[in-house]
Input
Amino acid sequence: AQKVTQAQTEISVVEKEDVTLDCVYETRDTTYYLFWYKQPPSGELVFLIRRNSFDEQNEISGRYSWNFQKSTSSFNFTITASQVVDSAVYFCALSKKGNQFYFGTGTSLTVIP
Amino acid sequence: DTGVSQNPRHKITKRGQNVTFRCDPISEHNRLYWYRQTLGQGPEFLTYFQNEAQLEKSRLLSDRFSAERPKGSFSTLEIQRTEQGDSAMYLCASSPTGERYGYTFGSGTRLTVV
Output
């Protein structure tokens, strides 16, 4: 069975603080893909990153970075120097075959100016 | 191409009525997906199409739900005899074929059953 757990329901930080969003996944497959999506108040889910199970290299994109560790089945997301525009709900998702994504319950991030 | 388009954005209906939603995917994407999202939850898979073929349906998709993609382009999702529990955001997404691609989501249709 596939499962994604985002234990942090809500997080509040003051602008310019760093924040890490946790994601733990379960799968028995050796090949899979992990994703992060952002859902701002407007409601549309915005793709942030994809990582396949064979690539454990961390990735940095501007203020965003991702830490993938297969040993702990985690795919955590860090925002450095947070901004008010980062306020949104963030979803971690797991895809086995590409035809179905399993989403976590999301972490609501509020950045306070 | 401006992305995945969903209509209507909002729908309020009385319990027992039928509703139909439309999704226009990105034109070069041959996969199309429907998800449902309730408040405080992540999206849940309903069904997906590869071109015009409906290849997988979730157990969440009861007999009152039907989806079509007649020409492999736009898709419709119909809910018959709506119930209050059907109130949710219905999301459509599209992607190229291949598990390594992420989805492009539409803005969703918010259904309220009163």
